[in-house]
Amino acid sequence: MVTLINHPGLKVMKGLQLQSPSPPIGLAYLGGFLKQNGIAYTAIDACGLALDQVRPFQGDASVFIQGLNSAEVLARIPAGTRVIGFSCLFSHCWPLVFDMVAAIRLKFPEAVYVAGGEHPTALPGSALKPALFDVVVNGEGEETLAEIIERVAIGQAWEDVDGISFLKNGKIFKNPARKRVTDIDRFPLPDWDAWCLESYMRAGQVTGINLGRLMPILGSRGCPYACKFCSNEAMWGRRYIMRDPKSLVDEMQAMKEKYGVSGFTFMDSTFVVQRAKTLAFARELISRRLDLSYQLPAGTRCEAFDEELAFALAKSGLKNFAFAPESASERI
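RESULT FIELD:
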């Protein structure tokens, strides 16, 4: 049995600014892939299940934990669970994962604990050295996690699986990287039904500006740049892969019809890289007249922008985005 857990969230309050957790798109993608491959799993959205449950973090009145506590998560893990997976995108959330896994291990000592996401990929020692996790999935996780689960199910060793790091005799071993998937449109859509999407939308809890009933979406994977402050190169390498524009708009249309959304928040590291494909995406969205808005809150590079693309994006429903110059140099 497999359980995937979204850790509780950190709500950071500073003046009028509020940073809040949003629906776990990475875990929803993993869940969709597992289901496609006949692997049943239990989803525990520790944040989304209790958005109204907010408490100070370690006595700090400016930072609050949002969601279930460890005991409440433990009560939802099915008996006999053999693989327990956590994802962590941001390092500031790692203490929440750390505390929860420590508590869960006491009740499920024989399970295989898997960590994935940007933080453990960039800093595997933080997950493995405290002997909390057994294995870190490096980078893109769908195929790697499925292989680990299949090995565990038949009692086979998983230490030779590509794309992982693990601890042995006090030393961290990093296996060869798994080959990146280039046809990312073949991945199934995120399994949103297993997570608390509706709760997040009702609460208006999204990344970026609240433009109504918004849900997360990914239009690409990776980034071709290697900024010194960013974990991208460890997570994805330097290969940027954008989805087919038609497939991307197909998903937007399907999600509007299924969940009644009014728009989307793109969670891409940087969406506008390939000008021709981005322009094709905007034109596809315009031609279907879906009356959707969207935003690019993570920031995007400016090299591919010109007047034609800017007007096409605006006409297609882009309401908010940020440029990311990635440098403190005035000349650059």
